Amino acid sequence: MATSKKNSSIKNGITDFPVRDSVAEAMQFKKIQKRFPQQFEHIFPDNLAPRTVVIIPSLTMDIEILSKISGVNHYEERLLCMLMLLRMPRTNVIYITSETIDPIIIDYYLHLLPGITGYHAKNRLTLLSCHDSSPKPLIEKILERPRLIQRIKDFIPPDHEAHMSCFIVTEQERSLAVQLQIPIYGCDPDLYELGNKSNGRKIFRECGLNVAPGFEDLRTEEDIIEGLFKMKEQNPSLRKGVVKINDGFSGDGNAVFNYTGAEKTTDLKGWIRDNLKNKLKLVAEDLTYDKFIGKYKSMGGIVEEFLEGNVKESPSVQCRITPNGHVEIISTHDQELGGDSGQVYIGAHFPASVEYAVEVSKMGKCVATSLMNKGVLGRFAVDFISVEEKDGWKHYPIEINLRKGGTTHPFLMLQFLTGGIYKEDEGKYYTSQGHLVRYYFCSDNLKSENYRGLSPHDLIDIAMINDLHYDGTSQEGIMFHLIGALSQYGKLGVVCVGSTPQRAREYYAKIISVLEKEC
Fold first, then answer.
1. Would you call 282 helix, strand, or coil by DSSP?
2. Strands 9-12 and 327-338
3. What is the pLDDT averaged over residues 245-263?
4. CA 238, CA 445: separation in Å to the nearest integer?
5. Edge to edge, what strands does the sheet with 91-97 contain?
6. Domain 438-519 annotated CATH 3.30.310
7. Which fold has domain 308-436?
8. Please, what is the average pLDDT of the chain?
């Protein structure tokens, strides 16, 4: 927390900056942020206004959990969708990554720009690299390199308004914003705790939503045992419980506890204590029980019932709170979850099912309004588990993600390319032509051992030969991302846009078929 350090300052080049994570730094950040509403009102609506967007695609999260994600540094490529901002002819983009991105990947994105030549766009694009392949978050690498920070400053023209766009905003992104003296379109890190699992449950209850039975604000192994015991005591038919670290993501901070065998004991709490280590199935591969419990103790967490149902879906509502205090529902998705526990994010269908998209949007808007009243800014998502019952769907809010996520870049690509809008009152997306409805299926996790060794050049060649591309005329087709992860990790991201949900899935099937043939 910033309050734990003194309000001193250090000399950094010519300018004095507050000590990292100090009260003075947090106060200076708030002053910088106060300028942002005026920039938002006057610059954002004007496509010809001179501006610079500094993109920091850092996954600033627990390094040990991040290290379990194969090709994690290449996830920084997901925000390359924001190169589409270059369609505005006086907008500059500065994009920083851990490692240099292959030029063919940049060319792949720039060729999608409507109405702008690649040459014109390249002249307004600055790509900077830390040349650091270590698994620690990108923002740490940037802050360790004052000369790189100075280069970022030097590439912002003096007549441009500028702001930072980040995957997530922590104290470290705040430090960079203060050193650059530009605002962030994102949530103040002092409010980040509002999005953890424990506080999410409290906000959901404030909004009058159905919260899965469970307990929050837990810290110790004994807290977990007590929570699992009380849940089973209150619901004897309960088969599974979920243990979640407050700041876990993509399911990798979760573990599932199986009560099988508990029916034979007369000492339920003792049985849970004796079996916790053996029956707690961790979602994150290679994360040991002891390390999981260690993170739980340091971050806190919750336990809640594992929601059962013959038909169960995982919709997500993407929201945005603008600098002028307007709440927007940007999109809805049905997430596709996998893994042994069904907790790992695989991909998503856009939009969410017409059966409940409007309903979950209203719930998401209630949560967003509550967060706005608490001072939150920027993009975030509210995730649900939805169970079909005889009289309709019952929706349980599961978590708030106060950051961009796995559905951010696919939707931004669709929006940039079609100029359309998601209508929350219909649960449908319409292109700029007004009458055309579009759907997509997206995934960050298309992978196969057979794909290893394919370079970005190979993929582009395969895509061109086999007609795996996006057609701006029909506003349908395929877009790839995470291209840099393909050769080493056999992993790829895709967005498949179609005029129907079935057509979007057909594009995905075509990708798999072509890659199997080519490999």
1. strand
2. unpaired
3. 86
4. 32
5. 125-129, 91-97, 51-56, 161-166
6. yes
7. D-amino Acid Aminotransferase; Chain A, domain 1 (3.30.470)
8. 93
- DSSP H/E element including 197: helix 197-206
Which is nearest to 399 in space by CA: 282, 249, 239? 249
- The boundaries of every CATH 3.30.470.20 domain in the chain are 308-436
In the chain, list all ranges with CATH 3.30.310.
438-519
What span, in angstroms and rounded, lies between the C-alpha atoms of 255 and 258? 10
Question: pLDDT value at position 250?
Answer: 60
Both structure tokens of 325: 């205090």
Size of the chain in residues: 519
- Contacts of residue 227, defined as CB under 8 A and 6 or more positions apart, other chains included, come to 214, 215, 218, 241, 302, 303
b/e sequence 439-477, b meaning 16+ C-beta within 10 Å:
bbbbbbbbbeeebeebebeebbebbeebebbbeeeebbb
44 pLDDT above the threshold of 90:
yes
- The type of residue at 168 is I
What are 432's two structure tokens? 């700029």
Token output for 58: 């850092």
And the tokens for 255? 């573990």
Token pair, residue 208, equals: 């009058």
The residues that bridge with 446 in the sheet, in sequence order, are 492
Tokens representing 344? 């790992």
Give 78-89 as a 3 state SS string.
HHHHHHHHHHCC
Dihedral angle over CA of 274, 277, 279, 280, nearest 10: 140
Q: Which of 513, 196, 313 is nearest to 505 (CA)?
A: 513
What's the pLDDT score for residue 8?
A: 41
